[in-house]
Amino acid sequence: MRIASWNVNSIKARLANVTEWVRQEKPDVLALQEIKCQDKDFPALEFESMGYSVHVHGQKSYNGVAILSLLRPDAVRIRLPGDDADEQARYIEADIAGITICNLYLPNGNPRPGEKYDYKLRWMARLRRRASELLAAETPFLMAGDYNVCPEDIDVYDPVAFADDALCWPETRQAYRALLNLGLTEAWRALHPGVQDYTFWDYQAGCWPKNHGLRIDHFLLSPQLADRLVACEVDRRPRGREKASDHTPIVCTIADADKPTDI
Q: Which residue, 48, 49, 109, 256, is most buried by CB atoms nearer than 10 A?
């Protein structure tokens, strides 16, 4: 199963780029973040015409997540548990072919300190609780999406300039490590130790041509899926196109359950 994750920074603005990439790559599952539209305004027909089942948890003008799948999910759940008052559309999960796919758009947290950063940490604590629940149930699962976390200095082009940023602040990284310490595997880093690559390049100051990027889009795998991890790659091509998102897709390949890997 090939599962892609992509913060598209408005599905309306990037629709041509996204549909072109989907036609070329044909991922089995596509997790989209920051779609910036309500459920009824998501361009479902464009993807359904390519054979995808479309499931959306949207929000007007902000946030929003969606899961597109060539296989119809057995179940779909929206909202990250733990705070009924949280109205931001940042989380959706679906059970597909025996795998629970959790698609998330974690809060940015800037400016820090302040309520936005406090919300980020509360959200990360809720995500850790959800991961703990899935682990306790021995559910094969992955958590894909825009984490708004640079796990290490190698994941940011200028660690000194970003030292005080919410994406790199020690408490943020500690909360991210707490997720990993549950027993999860970060797919791209597991396969690319010591390599520097990015998934996000800001629109400002020529960041893309200068390769001034951040690696903030991740796949975290449960032990069952870590045993089946085949590949995880960043596809830079969409970032260089006209009207590109500031993020680019990352694609994770999971072997069938009866074909575990040695990774």
A: 109
Can you point out the beta strands (E) in the chain? 2-7, 29-33, 53-57, 65-69, 75-78, 91-96, 99-105, 141-146, 185-186, 200-201, 213-214, 217-221, 229-234, 250-254
Number of domains into which the chain is organized: 1
From 28, 32, 29, 27, select the one nearest 42 (Cα to Cα): 32
Contact 165, 113 (CB under 8 A): no
Asked whether residue 262 is domain-assigned, the answer is no
Gap between the Cα atoms of 147 and 38, Å rounded:
22
DSSP 203: S
Within 8 A by CB and 6+ apart from 79, the residues are 57, 86, 91
pLDDT the model gives residue 260: 54
Which tens digits make up the pLDDT trace of 80-118?
999 999 999 999 999 999 999 999 999 999 999 999 999
Measured in degrees and rounded to the nearest 5, phi and psi for residue 150 equal -95, 105
- pTM of the shown model: 0.96
Tell me the sheet residues that pair with 99.
Answer: 96
Q: Is residue 247 part of a domain?
A: yes
Per the structure, the complete domain to which residue 81 belongs is given by 2-254
